[in-house]
Write a structure and sequence with these properties.
The complex is a heterotrimer of chains A (284), B (779) and C (162). Chain A is α+β, with helices and mostly antiparallel strands and 284 residues long. In chain A, 35% of the residues lie in helices and 26% in strands. In chain A, the strands form 4 sheets. Chain A has a 5-stranded antiparallel beta sheet. In chain A, strands 11-12-13-14 form a 4-stranded antiparallel beta sheet. In chain A, strands 1-3-2 form a 3-stranded parallel beta sheet, with helices on one face. In chain A, α5 (91-97) packs antiparallel against α8, α10 (226-232) packs antiparallel against α11 and α11 (239-249) runs antiparallel to α12 (262-283). The longest helix of chain A is centred in the last third of the chain and has 22 residues, at 262-283. Chain B contains 20 helices and 29 strands. Chain B is globular. Chain C has 162 residues and is an alpha+beta fold. Chain C folds into 2 domains: 3-79, Roll (Ubiquitin-like (UB roll)); 89-160, Orthogonal Bundle (DNA polymerase, domain 1), CATH 1.10.150. Helix content of chain C is 30%, strand content 17%. Chain C has 5 helices and 5 strands, in the order ββαβββαααα. A 5-stranded mixed beta sheet of chain C has the order 2-1-5-3-4, covered by helices on one side. In chain C, β3 and β4 (57-60) form a beta hairpin. Classes of the chains: A alpha+beta (284), B alpha+beta (779), C alpha+beta (162). Chains in contact: A-B, A-C, B-C. The interface between A and B is medium-sized, with 25 and 30 residues. The structure holds flavin-adenine dinucleotide and FE2/S2 (inorganic) cluster (FES) (2 copies). Flavin-adenine dinucleotide binds at residues 28-36, 38, 73, 100-101, 105, 109-110, 112-114, 116-117, 119, 122-123, 160, 165-166, 190-192 of chain A. Residues 40-43, 45-50, 60, 62 of chain C line the site of one FE2/S2 (inorganic) cluster.
């Protein structure tokens, strides 16, 4: 199980990187390598060129500004998990990252790599869907900013062009009027989610003024559940509402995979959503 | 019995391994080493035509691309003489060493590439072109056994490779007079062995002495040698097989595989040292596994819940060849009986060849399935009668005073299966007490009131250990005074060397560390079998014990002449033989050995025979039976179907223990293997026979975070069958686990009356049963 | 074949070597430097037997290329015993607690625990945390209990032990 041959490039500046991406045929960015390298060792992926982005300055910082947490694509998952800025301003992301893999994979795996790999059971894309993350994408042709919704095309498929790199993401900070929740069911410690749910509710008094709910693992792309959000908006969070939302969640589209069928996944989605909402109801 | 271990010494193997100085096959390096990659069948069943090697041969760094036709020059036969004999087998299926014209499972080796590096060999293998005509594949055993099924192999009459009935007594009458009957169907899956180190070997022909040395990650180096002698047409002194450090075996490293012969043959052909290391993907598709058994059974009981008989059928997935005969399903059928009185028994067994990886035993070796069936029947009968699960077992357990207990079935060696020693009711009693069985109902009630679903389950089982026919061990002391032990036993992590050193050390009055043990080297000892059936402490241990006694005696007798005292007045201490209480009157072992190695022309003192060397074959008179009781406590999350094992208690009886810490290690590892088989491991294929679980991300093994702390309590009922009074312990942990865990899950969910009939119990499967029950039976 | 010269510090020693770019760090350590204590049990990032410390953080050496480690520092199991050859307290505890059987997973497990020792506050280390940290290291032999006990004894404060 050895990778096929490839050319290896380690640019030191963004300009150099963008040129390489534009000029090299069949080039693949390598970030933490925690998804790409297994695929290369299995020879499922056999890129002609690998472009290592570890040396590029400025891709690994976490900044807070104007109600936004900005996270560089090369921020390691372990560093994101340990970051006080993320914990305080975007706790749902911290909760989510704690569920990714193991210490050894989080030490290498990056926030950007997880987004670009876009496994449908991944936690970081789930949070980005939930919060409508803005993604910054660069190429020699310029920079564009994209909502996660437009970035995520299908499982394992993004709208990145071959010459583009994701440089960083913006997430809105969670202010005192919002309550978030995250729940995941995985078979073992460190596994990808079978199903995970993340919620973000804004309250005015007891009334939900803004409802966001998103799921991962259903086999479809991580996305907000518009229909559920619609039911919740302007309602009071109550056991009856939770029942209703859980029932709706149990009807969501889902796809079977080798290990779990759509029926079970929908069932889990409903259970996990119920748990998250009940906890918010209990603890306010 | 005095114990080493906790109170005594660390294992002799540990220090090297902890320093990273183990010598596993892939750690070995020799000059001019080349690397082998196998091109394997991508289809479950295909006729193989022309193999075009030309593109592969052109890659820089490739030395050869070989097919069966190329190897013929150095082979005496095309097929691997692997099969274990069994009269029930209608036809043996020995696979070709490389596929000749028909590939019968995904992963079967077709060709090999020899190159400077593994990576280059993989590059080249991808360029080999094969004409393959896809044939219909047999992938499911019920369909495979039906008359209109396609055939697994074109040259066989049908897929039913073996069929027999095991049984005794008048089952019909037993069922006719039964007060109660229970019938059940089970689909029992057990996965692969998945040792952390895969298979692999390094074969080096030496032009200086003409010996082919093969370092092989095998459980049975002497068997490998025998197969190589046969297939390569060499003499016994031209092949040396060494099992270096082996990173786990658990069964499937026992049989000999085509790769071992092919790599050795290619090394001879090319006169180059070659290494092949199985990668994890290959391990999932080409190393033997266990997989599926379907049981349809019925139990007859009297009014008090005493067993009158069990009857039914067992269908077993045998894979594409018969590397280990019928031993795996045979173990299932005999182990069903367990520690219980079963007056009548009749089971029809059919083995179906399938276009999947061949099957052989993995840890537990079919026994967990048999035990599972019996234990489920008992639990269900208890529920029907409204008596305790402990009580129904008490009513059926063989009482202590009935041992030795002769059952009415025969084991592979043709002897009646006889339980030699133990106290099964007491074992259960202690386990129930240790696990708080009698308080549990109250705890369960309290938990249920809080909406928590907890359950406690139990199982009893026996494990036939110490299988013969023999094992050898030798002990030698030369003038250097160093104590050299050799044995045909082989270790894959069981601490075999430590175990042997402890046995010899105790007899010779030395510290175990001063003994040099060589295991798994065919040059160190002429005969041997190796590791299977939890046997080495019993067989090699007793062989060495006898050899040590012989040498101790000889040392004393020789010293008696030299010191002019009676042998009875001598004792052995720290590599010296000395007059009891007179430490100044002593001779070192080295001096004794020197005396016995003789001086040209002079007679040996006192007419002693030359040399301090003894070799003993220990032939166990019969199998010795370890037994145990497992109690598992679980909590089920009824929403997700998640099962958490919260407590695990075992009472275990493997006779005398040479080293309790090693025994506990074996039991712990075995239990976790059993937990894993019950909750996680599942080999999946698609309808065409393509394996789908080929990575450790898709094939789940439990992590440290997924298993509980396990409490082990010991009973020691020495066996009368060997002088050390020891029994095996390596598989025992696995055997009881599935039955105990499932008993606990059903107990937790008792208000829902859920019956679990499939292994593994995945959260999805369990959750569906829960929902079905909640919906009042309709899905 | 694409090759590159790299400078790398391994267990305190500097190396300057030419490597094929496709060679991963595990193979580099094992077959080029002959540090065979680091094992490869899966080569796809799951088993953890290849765990080493890269600039003091635990990583899968099967998922990183040797060229990516140019200019960096690596520690493997071979670095644990002190200069006089005395075993690290963790290694010693592993032996006493029978935390290893075949020993194949052991080097990776040890390196994971070394990282934990160097980073966590002993008063926070308890059994659950150790089991969670070990979740990236598969062992097929031991059932994990011995290694958990060895880690508890060496890494945690006495009141966090059983
Ligand atoms: C044992 C194990 C368990 C895991 N468990 C989980 C889990 O529970 N949840 C989970 O979400 N993940 C899990 N993962 C995967 C996770 O660890 C990876 O980190 C992540 O999926 C990819 O991130 P990376 O930085 O390693 O990216 P890489 O593997 O380097 O790259 C992944 C893909 O993204 C592209 N890419 C990377 N960065 C950029 C960029 N900045 N711009 C454009 N393209 C880019 C690459 O070209 C490649 O196609 C697990 C991995 C392992 C080995
Ligand atoms: S070999 Fe690297 S994780 Fe298994
Ligand atoms: S000791 Fe063998 S795999 Fe852990």
């Amino acid at each position: 199980m050895k990778a096929a041959g490839f050319g290896y490039h380690r640019p030191e500046t963004m300009a150099e990187l963008l040129t390489l991406l534009a000029d090299l045929p069949d080039a693949r960015i390598i970030a933490g390598g925690q998804s790409l390298m297994p695929m290369m060792n299995f020879r499922v992926a056999m890129p002609q060129h690998l472009v290592d982005i570890e040396k590029i300055d400025g891709l690994d910082s976490i900044n807070l500004r104007d109600g936004i947490v900005q996270i560089g694509a090369m921020v390691r998952q372990a560093d994101a998990l340990a970051s006080p800025v993320i914990k305080e301003n975007c706790p749902v992301l911290a909760d989510a990252i704690a569920h990714i893999g193991h210490q050894q994979t989080r030490n290498r795996g990056t926030v950007g790599g997880s987004l670009c790999h876009l496994d449908p059971a991944s936690e970081i894309p789930l949070v980005c869907a939930l919060l409508d993350a803005q993604l910054y994408i660069a190429s020699r042709r310029g920079t564009r900013i994209m909502n996660f919704r437009d970035f995520a095309v299908a499982p394992l498929t993004t709208s990145l062009a071959e010459d583009e790199i994701l440089t960083h993401i913006d997430l809105p900070i969670c202010d005192p009027d919002t309550r978030h929740g995250f729940r995941e069911y995985a078979r073992r410690s460190g596994d990808f989610a079978v199903v995970a749910v993340a919620t973000h509710l804004r309250f005015a008094g007891e009334t939900i003024t803004e409802a966001r709910m998103a799921f991962a693992g259903l086999g479809t792309i991580q996305a907000r559940a518009d229909r559920l959000e619609m039911f919740a908006t302007s309602q009071k969070l109550s056991p009856a509402l939770i029942d209703k939302l859980a029932q709706e969640a149990a009807q969501m589209p889902a796809e079977s995979d080798l290990h779990h069928d759509a029926d079970y996944k929908r069932h889990l989605a409903a259970c996990l959503l119920r748990e998250v909402l009940e906890r918010i109801l209990r603890h306010g | 019995m005095q114990h080493a271990g906790k109170t005594g010494h660390a294992r002799l193997e540990d220090e090297r391994l902890l320093r990273g100085q183990g010598r596993f096959v892939d750690d070995l390096d020799v000059p001019d080493l080349l690397h082998v990659v196998f091109l394997r069948s991508a289809y479950a069943h295909a006729r193989i035509g022309k193999i075009d090697k030309s593109a592969a041969e052109k890659i820089v760094g490739v030395h050869a691309v070989l097919t069966l036709a190329d190897l013929k020059e150095v082979l005496t036969c095309e097929r691997l003489p692997a099969a274990t004999p069994a009269s029930a087998i209608h036809f043996h299926v020995d696979p070709c060493i490389l596929v000749k014209d028909e590939a019968c499972y995904v992963g079967e080796p077709i060709a090999m590439v020899v190159a400077d590096t593994r990576a280059i060999a993989e590059d080249a293998a991808a360029l080999i072109e094969i004409d393959a005509e896809i044939l219909p594949a047999v992938t499911e055993i019920r369909a495979g056994l039906s008359p209109d099924s396609p055939r697994t192999r074109l040259d066989q009459p049908d897929n039913c490779v073996a069929r027999w009935t095991i049984g005794y007594g008048d089952c019909e009458s037993a069922f006719a007079k039964a007060a109660h009957k229970i019938s059940a169907s089970f689909e029992l899956h057990k996965g692969g062995a998945i040792p952390m180190e895969g298979r692999g070997l390094l074969a080096r022909p030496d032009p200086l002495d003409g010996v082919l040395t093969v370092w092989d990650s095998t459980q049975m180096p002497h068997r490998v040698k025998r197969v190589l002698v046969t297939t390569l047409g060499l003499n016994e002194n031209q092949i040396r097989v060494i099992a270096p450090d082996v990173g786990g075996g658990f069964g499937p490293k026992g049989p000999v595989y085509a790769e071992e012969v092919a790599v050795s043959a290619a090394a001879l052909l090319l006169q180059k040292p070659l290494k092949w290391i199985e990668d994890r993907y290959e391990n999932f598709i080409s190393t033997n596994q266990e997989r599926d058994q379907y049981w349809d059974v019925e139990g007859a009981f009297d009014a008090d819940g005493r067993l009158l008989g069990i009857r039914g059928t067992l269908l077993h997935d045998h894979g594409a060849c018969t590397p280990s005969g019928i031993q795996l399903p045979q173990n299932s059928t005999t182990n069903l009986i367990g520690p219980y009185i079963l007056p009548t028994y009749k089971l029809d067994v059919s083995l179906c060849l399938t276009n999947k990886t061949p099957t052989t035993s993995t840890r537990g070796a079919g026994r967990p399935q048999g035990t599972f069936v019996m234990e489920r029947l008992l639990d269900r009968m208890a529920a029907k009668l409204g008596i305790g699960r402990d009580e129904i077992r008490r009513r059926n357990l063989i009482p202590a005073d009935a041992l030795p207990y002769v059952t009415q079935v025969l084991t592979r060696d043709g002897l009646p299966m006889t339980y030699d020693s133990g106290d099964y009711p007491e074992c259960q009693r202690r386990a129930l007490e240790a696990a708080g069985w009698h308080d549990f109902l109250a705890r369960q009630k309290a938990a249920r009131e809080k909406g928590r679903w907890i359950g406690l389950g139990l199982s009893n089982y026996v494990e036939g250990t110490g299988r013969g026919p023999f094992e050898t061990a030798s002990l030698r002391i030369g003038p250097s005074g160093k104590i050299l032990v050799a044995s045909g036993a082989a270790s894959q992590g069981q601490g075999t060397s430590t175990m042997l050193a402890h046995i010899a050390a105790k007899v010779l009055g030395v510290r175990p560390e001063v003994i040099d043990v060589t295991c798994g080297d065919t040059h160190a000892i002429a005969m041997g079998l190796g590791a299977y059936a939890s046997r080495q402490t019993v067989t090699a241990g007793n062989a060495l014990h006898a050899a040590s006694l012989e040498i101790a005696q000889k040392i004393k007798q020789t010293a008696a002449h030299l010191l002019e005292v009676s042998a009875d007045d001598l004792e052995l201490r720290d590599s010296f033989v000395q007059v009891k209480g007179v430490a100044s009157m002593k001779k070192s072992f080295g001096e004794i050995a020197k005396t016995l190695s003789g001086n040209a022309g002079f007679a040996l003192p006192g007419g002693m025979k030359p040399g301090l060397f003894a070799a003993v074959d220990f032939e166990p008179p019969a199998i010795t039976y370890t037994n145990g009781t497992h109690l598992a406590e679980v909590e089920v999350d009824i929403r997700t179907g998640h099962i958490k094992i919260t407590r695990y208690v075992i009472v275990h009886d493997c006779g005398n223990m040479i080293n309790p810490q090693i025994v506990e290690g074996q039991v712990l590892g075995g239990v976790v293997h059993g937990i894993s088989a019950t909750l996680f491991e599942w080999i999946r294929h698609d309808a065409q026979g393509q394996p789908l679980t080929v990575s450790l991300a898709d094939y789940l093994l439990p992590t440290a975070h997924d298993v509980p702390r396990i409490e082990i309590h010991h009973m020691e009922s020495p066996t009368p069958l060997n002088p050390l009074g020891v029994k095996g312990a390596a598989e025992s942990g696995t055997i009881g686990a599935p039955a105990a865990i499932v008993s606990a899950i059903e107990d937790a969910l008792a208000p829902l009356k859920i019956e679990i009939n499939q292994l593994p119990v995945t959260p999805q499967r369990l959750q569906k049963l829960i929902r079905k029950a909640q919906a009042g039976g309709s899905p | 074949m694409d090759e590159r010269i790299i400078t790398i510090e391994v267990n305190g020693k500097q190396y300057r070597l030419k490597v094929p770019v496709r060679e991963n760090l595990a193979d580099f350590l094992r077959h080029r430097l002959h540090l065979t204590g680091t094992h490869t049990g899966c080569e796809h990032g799951v088993c953890g037997s290849c765990t080493i410390l890269l600039d003091s953080r635990s990583v899968r050496s099967c998922l990183i290329l040797a060229v990516q480690c140019d200019g960096r520092s690596v520690r493997t199991v071979e670095s644990l015993a002190d200069a006089a050859g005395k075993l690290d307290p963790l290694q010693d505890a592993f032996s006493r607690h029978h935390a290893l059987q075949c020993g194949f997973c052991t080097p990776g497990v040890l390196m994971t625990l070394v990282e934990l020792r160097e980073n966590a506050d002993p008063s926070e280390i308890n059994e659950d945390m150790i089991r969670e940290k070990l979740s990236g290291n598969l062992c097929r032999c031991t059932g994990y209990q011995g290694m958990v006990d060895a880690a508890l004894e060496t890494l945690s404060r006495p009141d966090k032990r059983l």
